[in-house]
């Protein structure tokens, strides 16, 4: 029993050290994941503490039994020292004989030979009580072994659950990292596409401005050329130009044909006046040919001017349609970029939530 008591103390110290190690690992985050639920950790700790407390109670009971047995042994020794067996010999003398422990416990020992019947009954009661305590000690040892097996099973189950939770946490973290990298890559692609569209729109705008400037210069050149031709056809007797005379009239549209017709009319009137004064024709074929050539040149310039005007109008319409298309595409890209930024913000908030949850579980 003494040896058993020493083993019990060693077992309790070993279990306490193992519990402290497990709980230490749970607190410091050694092999145990931070993702493990706090309620399960507390539940395991309570069960381990309860088992440890039961083992300590069993150890206290066994220590009390051991102390009680030691007291019984001392009492037996004191009783053996006081007891004497008187044996009648041939000479009639009594010899003091000290009762041995095995003789007292032997079935050959007759209780009626002892003078103190009450002491004999008390000794028998103590023997039965000792047997009961020994049986109880054996039962406590068996129960202690069962508790140790239960603790070992709980420890293994705890480690398995910890490994599973750690694996799930690592998988979730990898998936989250992959998702964030994909979202960031998509956002960068959208940003590069947006920059490219902006650059293309800027180039189209600059090209449109250059084309409009060129068309305006062409219009100015044609107008100057027509004005020069008209000034050359003005009649010397007039004090105003054709453009000024026509512009003074109300309701008259000034065109190249109108200017040429008015110039021919004035020239014809001037020639008639000269014929009436001199009574000789002065209109020569050179002047008529010159007027015809001027009219044909004006018609060609007018056709060329109209053609360029139509081309410029088509070009402007095409550029405006492209600008509208690029503007719509730009709006779509900006909306995609906004959605991507919102998703990135949500992912960042989720990451912060996960980190805070881990810290709360850790502390």
TrEMBL record:
Keywords: Coiled coil. The keyword Coiled coil applies. Residues 45-222 form the Rootletin-like coiled-coil domain. Transmembrane segments: none annotated. Pfam families: Rootletin. The keyword Coiled coil applies. InterPro entries: Rootletin-like_CC. It comes from the Eukaryota. Residues 55-82, 120-164 form a coiled coil. This is BMA-HCP-1.
